[in-house]
Fold each of these.
Amino acid sequence: MHPCLRGSAQRFAVGGLAVGRADEHLRIALRRGRDLRLRSPPGGILTTQLDAATEGLDSTGSRATRVLGVLAIFGLAALALFGLVLSPPDASQGEVVRILYVHVPSATFAYIGCFLTTIGSAMFLWRGSSWWELVAYASAEIATVFTAIVLVTGMIWGRPTWGVYWVWDARLTSTSMLLLLLLGYLAVRRLPADHDVRTKRAAIIGLLLVPNVIIVRQSVQWWRTLHQKPTLLANGVGAKIEGLMLFSLFVGFIAIGLVFAWLLIHRFRLAWLEDQLDDAGLDAAIAERRAEGDVS
């Protein structure tokens, strides 16, 4: 018998027979053991049953995601063509304006990822749905990547525009806080603690993302800031850029959106597979415990 299960088995065995309600307690103990990355010995009963229970759960790809991946590659190629070659330099910013074709769409989809995380967290806390919890978890990881891209591209853009890579500007500071909040969510979600406890605590952090996004979005309106005002709309009407530059920006939105969707689908499926593997391991361990009780 696996060492991490022996204590639970002794507590819930009377005269060599398992108590009927031991399954639930054993499941909790096994889940805690799983969070500590404890596994059964190779070739044991648990390993054999786990392999059988998870047969076929070895891929996150499908025909649809492969098509989506190809479209994302073509989108990025089109973005490189229009953003670096065909689009003209800006009259005031010059060549550095090309960074905005990645920076602005990345910021938009980082916000979308944060919204999905908050919605998934709220639904998980309300309904207890593991599906929504996985949506929140996957979205938070992708939003973290895109928020980091926003900060890096913003720093590259700021050096020739402002003369420095970083200033404690309202937009930059609030975006940094958003990144720290996302990292905090992921850190709590991956703590070596009870699964239910850490997912609920991470979900509470996830609820704070949308308010932070609103602060980031409105920071250029609420405070005096070096960051430019909204690029596409001025006072709600009229685009500040036009022609091929505007088209290149839209190509950026399409390309980055395809990449975001591809990453999100695969990360959600990977999280779902991990969850299925964990559940299969718990069921197999309980079956092993029952078999030991019958033998004894």
Amino acid sequence: MSSISTGRMIDNSSDPVKGRVVWMPAKSIWITAMTLIAIIGGPLTFTWSAFAVFILLTAITICLGHSVGMHRLLIHRSFSTHIWIEHFLVYLGMLVGMAGPFGMIHAHDIRDWAQRQRDCHDLYAHRRSFFIDAFWQMHCIVALDHPPRFVLEERERRDRFYRFLEATWMAQQIPLGLALFTLGGLPWVVWGIAVRISVSLTGHWLVGHFAHRAGHQGWSVDDVAVQGYNLPRFGLVTFGESFHGNHHAFPDSARLGIEPGQLDLGWYFIRLLARLGLASAIKLPHTIVPRRGLTRHCV
């Protein structure tokens, strides 16, 4: 099966369909350990202050870190900012506990590349049943028989800070954990680390699962394996990431909630940076080249 190149994923007689699902021990043990600690330790150590720490750190790491820093900035370069701000936002995104910066870029881009083809493996399309998809997405990867060639930009590849985070991303929870223990004891550690990571990673999978299966669709893209859908009810708790149909339509846009009434807190933060003179070259749907085959639907 022939394929097309997309950004960092270069066609190399690649096939987005043929491959096998492979269990990843480190990834699986990480999320399993965090989930078990959360399920067992969460109720045993619950305090209202620990719960507040969980809410605050989850909001900061998901909104400023994952959504703005990792996704919109590092992966899509939908705006520009000072390198120290970029590093800080990406660091917050790394604290979500999903992967290091290079791992996040690769995981995003291989999925995006596969979904843009005429067909792709079931894992990339979230086609399997709820529980199989959960296991595949959070504990496995696809080992394609003929994968594309991944070419990371020199700027990111040579960045010493990103290389450091990539090598130590799991261990980066330790300094935060020590700070939480000093300030609030074991309850703050359990809720600020384990509960936060397990909820964040499970929530990330849930959004991906449902946003690639059905929902509101203001736009569609012709001749691709997977469509994106919006989940309007979850705009607030995902900080705009649930407007995935919009993202498929305009992947390089800094704003994900582009329709009236779509709450996108990540976009509000980028606007704040811009007003402070800390963000520029902001890409929006009307300033970028539309995707080929993009079709508008009634909303």
Amino acid sequence: MATTKLKFKSKKPNPIASRASGSAASKKKTSALAPAKKTPIAAAAKAAMKPPKTKPSNDLPEASTKTIPKTDPKLEKNLAKKPLGGLDTPIRIFQIYYEAWQKELLDPNFAALDNSKGNSELLEFAVFEKLATTDYVKGAQLWGALSWRFTEKTGMSGSDWVKEISAHPGNDVYYCNPYPENEALFHNMWLHGDTRHPQFLALAQAVFQVTGLPVEELSSILSSEQFSAANYFVATPKFWAAYLPWVQKVMSVANKKLPPKVRDLMHSKGADEADLHKGATYVPFIVERLFPVFMKSEGKNLKGYKIALPERERELNVHVKLLREMKDVAHRTKSAWLAACWINYRNLYLTQVNGKEWCAKHLRNITPTEIKFS
């Protein structure tokens, strides 16, 4: 758990104070009835009624004689509105950043959270733990903390994210999966993890055994609705009050009961051999996959809502869409036959996409011999 003090900075756009606009002077047209017969007096009177011809004065700057352009209404609206997920709102969403340059990429609808001094191997979970004890979330109906790469990963803006939450009230936790292709290609996220982190499945089995978690979860077929990733949670205090201590207990028991060599492996940087996560240990990858296990056990009475990500969905090809649909139908109907068809189709697809070498290394490990549903 991180021990550094968190800093929050809420970006609030300043509304435009006033709008200036210019108007062109209009000329009045006058008309007069000419007398039937011109006389010297009439001619003089008519001449006197004509306005004198004068040249434009050069006393004023040229710009003052031109119309001042109006503010773009769309820009004005964006500047005037308040952040939807700021510190003074019922839905409080923080966005974590670690380096100064990342602040430029933060969404203005979230409250910036400086975690540059954070050093916990729990990563985002450590931020959740610390936030839960601060006044920043006091009185909030929902709160959460997202990464600085939120828009990059989800394809959603902060305003769209908050609007989705507001459009589906009454849930305890709102989450998403920035990698929907995994819903089509893997039984669950534990088997997916085995293709990303060496010895991941064996380590997960050891953790489940010593903590009393259902080991069958590691090989069961999950529906797409149960997939989540990246710890993108916005939830009620009720959810956090149950979820945080549950995860803490699981990891505490694992640390106490795992054999020393296995425990050392869990805390080693072997999980990130490619250095894609700045040398992260196995711990955060285990923790982020515990969410569906929690929702079916300690959190079974909580309501969850999965937010769809249109941009990520548009990136899926026809095979991935069909594979996901096959797997979901098999899960819904508990059809072992259809699940077997899905596995065969999936294996063929992975062979074509990832190649024989990848399949020779991973396919057997991610294809349990027994078909089970969870």
Amino acid sequence: MRRPKFGVQTSKYPAVDGVVHRQSPGRPRTTSRALDRNILRACREDPRRTSTDIQVSVTSPNKPVPLRRTIRRRLQVAGLHGRRPVKKQLVSLKNRKARVEWAKQHLSWGPREWANHIWSDELKFKIYAPQYQCPTVKHGGGSVMVWGCFSDTSMGLLKIIFGTMDRYVYEDILENTMRPWARANLGRSGVFQQDNDPKHTSGHVTNWFRRRRMDLLGWPKRRLKGVRASNANQKFAQLEAAWKSISMTVVQTILDSIPRRCQAVIDAKGYPTKY
């Protein structure tokens, strides 16, 4: 019978002072923990920075320059992934302050305060969506511009606008469309809302509101998804049908959401919100 062989096994990791130092597998990291923190700090300070910008900001003269791919990996490990920024309308500092101030003033308003308010706006709708337009066609296409208003109790009229809408056309709409509807539905206590379009704030229109003794709601500085139409009359018929189909439940839901919208403006410090 053969006797078993016994040998002495030696570790390939030598012990120093009783502590075994094992070599880490794989390629050693090219960035230190301090550099990783600087990369994350540079990204969080300005999320619009690219990997090239971060590379320039964290590079020191006496240390190797981290690769852009390495910087992107460090950010991905920390949960910071590259995204294309959402396009929002530019809001100046002056308008941001005005938006926050308006939101704070109306944050606590309820249905009683918003009663007898008339909300209005105008919008241009294209007859054909861009994907259905052909650059070689000389006739066809175009757009339809409409004006509408509503209150907390009823939907107003939808008015089609022919040609260019200037201060005189707008005054005609206020006199012959909005005012009769407001008198019939709200009496003489209506408060009118409009944006700061130049034709709305012109002296000509301002004098009309002064003569008619109608109060204006102070205002700081969605679109119907395209349905194909062959001409302007058909497009207006589509818009009018969609306008009349809006229920007062939708209007009431919008009015009930105003406090949330005001709070969103305050939280965003005047910048655009999800609304």
